[in-house]
Amino acid sequence: MKKKKKNFLPFCLESQFSNSQLSPKPEVAKPLPMLSSHAAALASLPSSLPFLRRSARLRLSTSLLSSLASTSSVDPSPPVRSKYGGIRLEETVEVGSEKSRLDAWIASRMHDVSRSRIVASIRSGLVTVNGRAVDKVSYKVKGGDVVSCTVSELQPLRAEAEDIPLDIVYEDEHVIVVNKPPHMVVHPAPGNPNGTLVNAILHHCKVSTFTWRTNSASLLEEGVDSSDEEIEVFHVDEFPTGGNGSQVGEALVRPGIVHRLDKGTSGLLVVAKDEHAHAHLAEQFKLHTIKRVYVSLTIGVPKGHTARVEVPIGRDPNNRLRMIATPSSSNRYARHAASRYKVIEVLAGGACALVEWRLETGRTHQIRAHAKYIGVPLLGDEVYGGTKNMVTSLLRAKNPSHFHDNTFETITKLDRPCLHALSLGFNHPHTGEFLQFSRPPPDDFCQILDFLQSITESASDN
């Protein structure tokens, strides 16, 4: 007998429009007067998302919400300056301490500055030991040494337009909403100069190249994505010219990344096309009025059906490519972070779960760090403990033996954390209209989910 496909529990947003409105065609939004405040937007928030249905390709109906609420007028953002450039450290190595690499010792004293930024400072001759310049990062410092370090200024980075396909969910002359695929880096950085979302958007907007100076030190740290609150401003450096020498893009389009997703995270992201839009969206992120819903697969099931995790997040002192959630005051650089989760479905006898997340703050790797803290790392998140060996062992322990072979084969195909930015809502920076978009997870996420649900249904039948 053919099994009836199972409906998911409702997610988070109440459908107010028909499905025909879920993928608006690119259009130009006409400026309207700002009509209301954030309070009106919050008062009009809905309470449930449409249904998820299990299938070989996860189907997710989406909804749009309408609210004539907006931010107050915000002046265009000023040019970004280096956040840590020029900061000076002068300290004596504790007597009796073991010898340590120069870069590692400085990094242990300057927690918010990336290791690569410190390395650049050393190689630039901005570090002295006992009054003598040292440009070797592996130089060993010992007890009693006096170390002086001045953090180097960031060098402007340059990006070029590349013809890379984009899944554009919505576009007008002010903003673009993109469904980012997994494995795509959002913006160029040392180690990832090409193939990024910014490179693709430059081509889409007919901008040839631009340069910018970032205010986020962690951009120089390969593998670490910055938080939503660290806003970038991109200044166009050069426009392509036509045969008659006229510039393309007379409005001087300035693509601006207002928030970011980790390289391995898929889903929705909004990009500003002008400084006015950038400033308004940045203010919405600052006030935490942007509505974001994520969906993940976790190893294990979180305690309680719903809960709020409020634990500060800072850089892991033992691994600078990772963040850590710590409730104690041991990490004085940790920042306030709060996430809400809801268990949508328990999968494979409790070995995994489909979990919805809502962010109250936008810290680097927030969901990943909080999931690890509560003991349910994201499936496929090797950096935060969600290893393939861990989930394979758990699935085999909790489920019949005839699933074991397929378990190993399916799990080994996964090469990223199972995390997807499902829904994104914001006030349009020019019209004040509240726009909301949703997109289902990509195939790799859906295939794993389908496999786990098949185990769940088989166990239920037995």
From TrEMBL:
Record-linked InterPro entries: PsdUridine_synth_cat_dom_sf, PsdUridine_synth_RluA-like_CS, PsdUridine_synth_RsuA/RluA, RluA_PseudoU_synthase, S4_RNA-bd, S4_RNA-bd_sf
Reactions catalysed: a uridine in RNA = a pseudouridine in RNA
RNA-binding S4 domain span: 100-165
GO annotation (BP), single: enzyme-directed rRNA pseudouridine synthesis
Keyword hit for RNA-binding: yes
Any single Pfam family the record assigns to this protein: S4
Protein name: Ribosomal large subunit pseudouridine synthase D
Isomerase is among the record's keywords: yes
Matches recorded under PROSITE patterns: PSI_RLU, S4
Family: Belongs to the pseudouridine synthase RluA family.
GO molecular function annotations of the record: pseudouridine synthase activity; RNA binding
Family matches, as Gene3D superfamilies: Pseudouridine synthase (3.30.2350.10), RNA-binding S4 domain (3.10.290.10)
Cited SMART domains: S4
Swiss-Prot/TrEMBL keywords: Isomerase, RNA-binding
Organism phylogeny: Eukaryota, Viridiplantae, Streptophyta, Embryophyta, Tracheophyta
